[in-house]
């Protein structure tokens, strides 16, 4: 099957999905946004695609819309509905009977914007796609409220092979890891204050590694035990996870958070806020990590609870975290997308 994928900026988990899809015999055309200065990723290997275009000025998408029916793909995936040219592409494909899937990672919150979206969906969203591929259960509720006919979960998946780590937790350095943009939504200020409070209450505190850049970077300077790594290339992140004993993600707002799946694949217990929606799939509170409200006292208590665990308890958390990660793989992700297209074709 010839499939066109309209994507935003690429990430390693995008590539592992494309590779799994190509391995199933599909011919892929990828149209994506170039990397921004905020996340200066090195170039990805896109050899699994017959054509891959970084379309920063949208000229390729404009030319794409002039294609005749014989040049159109058999199916398409569109990442969201914000790009007018991509909405036009979805309408064009549907007029010619091609299945189109819209990707959604926004969870249902009941905001006035989402309520308005429910009203305009029949006119703005349904003409471009009647199927939604969503990150998880919180997003599935939103998609159903928008009236999509077909809704499938599993939009995101970590590259399990890249993050696999067989080193027992007790043999890794005594360190915690945060990775992400250094912005308020990620809870960086909460992390720094909670880490300071944690260090005051224990002997031999664990170190904290902070990977990322952003406007709140100054908060990570001059903090005892905190090591700011700056921007870390995606292919280097598995090695950093192998040097830690837990991931800490205290986000105030996190639509999903693939890094939780990645950390679990590396065998890390995950200390995530309740705002991290990926935790609904990849964290079991008290078993594979801890969940907490995004505030300083709750995060401090989670850090203290993890610190007080003995080695066998941490190893048990690590095993359960890894088991949760293995419930969803790029191969399963590609199969789910393929089955969704088949369901749409059958009507």
Automatic annotation (TrEMBL):
It holds the Pfam family Glyco_trans_1_4. SUPFAM superfamilies: UDP-Glycosyltransferase/glycogen phosphorylase (SSF53756). One of its GO terms (molecular function) is glycosyltransferase activity. It comes from the Bacteria. Keywords: Transferase. CDD domains: GT4_PimA-like. PANTHER family: SULFOQUINOVOSYL TRANSFERASE SQD2. This is Glycosyltransferase. The lineage of its organism: Bacteria, Pseudomonadati, Pseudomonadota, Gammaproteobacteria, Nevskiales.
């Amino acid at each position: 099957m010839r499939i066109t994928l309209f994507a935003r900026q690429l990430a390693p988990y995008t590539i592992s999905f494309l590779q799994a899809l190509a391995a199933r015999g599909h011919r892929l055309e990828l149209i994506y946004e170039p990397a921004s200065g905020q996340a200066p990723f090195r170039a990805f290997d896109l050899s699994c695609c017959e054509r891959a275009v970084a379309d920063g000025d949208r000229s390729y998408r404009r030319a794409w819309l002039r294609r005749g029916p014989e040049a159109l793909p058999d199916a398409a995936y569109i990442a969201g509905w914000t790009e007018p040219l991509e909405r036009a592409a979805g309408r064009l494909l549907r007029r010619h009977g091609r299945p189109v899937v819209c990707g959604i990672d926004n969870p249902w919150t009941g905001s006035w914007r989402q309520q308005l979206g429910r009203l305009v969906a029949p006119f703005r969203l349904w003409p471009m796609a009647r199927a939604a591929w969503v990150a998880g259960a919180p997003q599935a509720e939103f998609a159903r409220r928008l009236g999509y006919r077909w809704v499938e979960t599993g939009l995101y998946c970590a590259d399990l092979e890249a993050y696999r780590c067989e080193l027992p937790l007790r043999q890794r350095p005594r360190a915690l890891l945060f990775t992400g943009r250094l912005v308020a939504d990620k809870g960086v200020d909460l992390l720094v204050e909670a880490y300071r409070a944690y260090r005051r209450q224990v002997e031999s505190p664990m170190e904290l590694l902070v990977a990322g850049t952003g406007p709140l970077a100054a908060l990570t300077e001059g903090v005892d035990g905190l090591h700011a790594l700056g921007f870390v290339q995606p292919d280097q992140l598995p090695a950093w996870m192998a040097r830690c004993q837990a991931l800490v993600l205290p986000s105030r707002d996190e639509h999903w958070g693939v890094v939780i799946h990645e950390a679990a694949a590396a065998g890390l217990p995950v200390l995530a806020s309740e705002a991290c929606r990926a935790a609904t799939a990849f964290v079991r509170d008290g078993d594979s990590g801890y969940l907490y409200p995004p505030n300083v006292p709750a995060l401090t208590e989670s850090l203290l609870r993890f610190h007080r665990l003995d080695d066998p308890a941490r190893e048990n958390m690590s095993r359960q975290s890894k088991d949760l990660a293995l419930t969803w793989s790029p191969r399963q992700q590609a199969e789910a997308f393929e089955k969704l297209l088949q369901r749409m074709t059958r009507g």
